[in-house]
Amino acid sequence: MGDHGRQHFYNRSDDFACSEPNRQRPRDLMKVPAFDGKEVWRVCVTRFETIADRLKLDEDQRLDHLLQRLEGQAATVAFTLLPPGVLHNYRDLKAELSSRFQLVETTKIFEARFTRRNQRHDESVEAYASELKMLYDRAHPQRDRRTREEDLVRHFLDGLQDEEARFEVEFHKEPTTVDEAVFNVATYLQMRGKQDERRYRRPTRRATEKLSEPQFESSGSRRQWSRDTCG
């Protein structure tokens, strides 16, 4: 075998060899962390694609490196659940991984938003509870109804702005569903508002009566004074 033939053989057999003289060696891609299904897939695949673009890797090379970097749950999905043909096509493999792990990423995002969500200032309890339901159902689509209600009631009460309403409903009403909790809180706030309004009106009425009493007495005194003087 001539020198040219041996050189051609080495270029074909070496996984990290490049046909272009100024091209970076694909082994540099080994610095990319593995993906085990727990990291954010969007970040991992974007980083992988960016480095692969800079190294000018073709789809076959990208496929080889991607397969080597699948671990844990991601490896289980790829090597046991996907059709064999998908493992031989980079675009198909990336699409399958995206469809499976992008959903997990989305549920994690909604779970984080649900955990941080509290009632906003001047937000009604109905609107607050409605968004909590949406976030919870997006974060836990498979959760059973009883667990769902328990989680929603607990988080709804914990996130209330009004501490008195929270204490009153949590310890005196003990709601079992979030709708029941919303009703009890709204009722309590309405009743307390009416009581506060009555307390506000009572001193005003008494003050008005006190101001009017001297006027009547003064008028009576004037009439009595008039009779005495005429007599």
TrEMBL record:
Positions of the UniProt region annotated as Disordered: 194-231
Annotated transmembrane regions: none
Domain Retrotransposon gag residues, every copy: 69-161
Name of this chain's protein: Retrotransposon gag domain-containing protein
Species of origin: Dreissena polymorpha
